[in-house]
Amino acid sequence: MSRVTLRNVWRTYGEQVVLERLNLVVEAGEFVTIVGASGCGKTTFLRMLLGQETPSRGLLLLDGTPLAAEPGPERGIVFQRYSVFPHLTVQDNVLLALELARAPLLGRLFGRARRAAREQAAAMLDAVGLGAFATRYPAALSGGQQQRLAIAQSLVNAPRVLLLDEPFGALDPGIRADMHALIRQVWKASGVTVFMITHDLPEAFALGTRVLVFDKPRVDPQAPQAYGATITYDIPLRGRGPVAVPAELVRKLTPVAEAPAHA
Ligand SMILES: Nc1ncnc2c1ncn2[C@@H]1O[C@H](COP(=O)(O)OP(=O)(O)OP(=O)(O)O)[C@@H](O)[C@H]1O
């Protein structure tokens, strides 16, 4: 688990300002959910936390130290799809995550170290409910099981920060409920600091200890690229029990075509 600090972080691509003036302190062990209109920079924000992108301006700190500008085992990520290696079995997917972290040059452990890693991978698979599927290939898993595997793969190195980019977006509602229970359980057990993007507002409010809303507070119709999104709402939820989704947010984030006629 880790404290994450952003000080006046900006991300631009050429003339396009995607994110601007991000200031944030997230305490170790928080579960931060992130919502915002499509294209407003949520994934870009996560990619900066992962180290796949660097801020164009400003400071991004992990426990007070500037974040390494490349992904490392202290940060794990799960995407909506395609996070796992299709040509490896379930157990080898998790084992590889351990081998890449512990033997970055060879990507392979030997002897006692490999046996220990195998045991650890098996324990992780049990923890996410995939113990019985260890020798299957991902193609023979359901969507929910594939996401369980992706979660196991990203958690096995005990990251300090877990980044989730719409991890349950492609799953049926019943399976999503199971996944919510799982992610809550692994978050509580590990104390990892979580950042999760979702398009589902009730999911954001049900899982998060804090909801961040990304939006563009300034828009110039003559120069749509001139201004970026920032954090326009920072809603604390921890210790408040179930919180209803504010109607104003529903209106803001529901695409016009989907909004009810009377809205
Ligand atoms: N490598 C890049 N080069 C140029 N532009 C980029 C790059 N990465 C992202 N962008 C731009 O940044 C903007 C934000 O993209 P991003 O994927 O972060 O949005 P998002 O909020 O995650 O969207 P969605 O909800 O649809 O997934 C988009 O206009 C995108 O085209």
UniProtKB/TrEMBL annotation:
Record-linked PROSITE patterns: ABC_TRANSPORTER_1, ABC_TRANSPORTER_2
GO molecular function: ATP binding; ATP hydrolysis activity
Statement: the UniProt record of this protein carries the keyword Transmembrane helix: no
SMART domains: AAA (SM00382)
Chain ranges of the ABC transporter domain: 4-241
Ubl conjugation is among the record's keywords: no
Origin superkingdom: Bacteria
Keywords assigned: ATP-binding, Nucleotide-binding, Transport
A Pfam family assignment: ABC_tran
PANTHER family xrefs: BICARBONATE TRANSPORT ATP-BINDING PROTEIN CMPC, SPERMIDINE/PUTRESCINE IMPORT ATP-BINDING PROTEIN POTA
Protein name as catalogued: NitT/TauT family transport system ATP-binding protein
Organism: Plasticicumulans lactativorans
